[in-house]
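Example S7 (structure tokens).
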């Protein structure tokens, strides 16, 4: 499933075509994706202007004039593509081929911006993504957004915050980091990478990084910094693009070529002087990759 850097990449790719564009028509080719489309979805959006695109955790937020916001999720296989011109046969150039089978084109935004018409097409073979609608003013109270922790992209993710949410926790560190109430949008790939960079075992109990006085231990600032760095680098690289994810222009991201542990089971640790074979374990149904020698 796409993680935060992938969704951020999609948002940045769509913004030039969608922001300040007028929605001429919203074409729904089926009644639902993961969830049914909102009642009168097309009627509510047609004729309105898209004010801005944003992201919260792994959700794409499409802010519409008049106080509406579309909350969109890519699911397992969702992707967007942009077609220019007035006909469905307009050519689309992809660096890497992506599903363009019309039977998987489920939502089409027919847009006009600066006198130019274009289509933004949501394609989703597995139909695990979704689009919902909410009042912009009450967005923070939406069930999918209301309990999210701070973003892992700024100073709000600090050692002090981690100490507050880890205090007394006996759950494994990796599970605590994947808890969206603790940190919003942090996923399996980047947790593995951040734990490796901070030399912390994914099996370690989260509470052991907090002092008896509730303060961050010496290693917690290193973890906070590692999380921010790995997310920033992945965004800069355009997302990891593992399996189903692809950028809106069809090109793949290349952060995966810099993975230190993820999906490298049995390969030697890259830490100078280590050479230990990397290990894979399963935690809460997800694969965890780490170095049993370096990470304690």
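Recovered sequence:
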């Amino acid at each position: 499933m796409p993680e935060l850097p992938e969704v951020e990449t999609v948002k940045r790719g769509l913004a030039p075509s969608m922001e300040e564009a007028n929605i001429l028509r919203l074409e729904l080719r089926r009644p639902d994706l993961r969830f049914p489309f909102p009642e009168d979805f097309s009627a509510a959006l047609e004729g309105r202007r898209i004010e801005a695109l944003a992201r919260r955790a792994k959700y794409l937020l499409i802010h519409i004039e008049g106080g509406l916001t579309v909350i969109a999720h890519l699911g397992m296989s969702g992707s967007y593509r942009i077609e220019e011109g007035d006909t469905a046969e307009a050519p689309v150039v992809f660096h890497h081929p992506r599903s363009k089978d019309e039977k998987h084109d489920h939502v089409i935004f027919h847009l006009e911006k600066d006198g130019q018409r274009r289509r933004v097409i949501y394609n989703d073979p597995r139909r695990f993504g979704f689009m919902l609608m909410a009042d912009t003013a009450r967005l923070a109270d939406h069930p999918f957004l209301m309990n999210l922790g701070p973003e892992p992209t700024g100073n709000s993710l600090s050692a002090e915050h981690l100490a507050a949410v880890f205090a007394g926790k006996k759950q494994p560190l990796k599970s605590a980091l994947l808890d969206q109430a603790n940190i919003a949008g942090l996923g399996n790939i980047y947790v593995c990478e951040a734990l490796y960079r901070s030399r912390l075992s994914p099996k370690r109990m989260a509470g052991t990084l907090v002092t008896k006085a509730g303060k961050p231990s010496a290693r917690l600032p290193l973890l906070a910094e590692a999380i921010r760095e790995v997310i920033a680098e992945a965004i800069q690289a355009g997302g990891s693009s593992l399996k189903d994810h692809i950028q809106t222009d069809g090109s793949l991201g290349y952060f995966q070529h810099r993975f230190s542990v993820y999906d490298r089971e049995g390969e030697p640790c890259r830490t100078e002087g280590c050479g230990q074979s990397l290990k894979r374990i399963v935690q809460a149904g997800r694969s965890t990759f780490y170095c049993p020698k370096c990470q304690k």
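Notes on this example. The radius of gyration is 21 Å.
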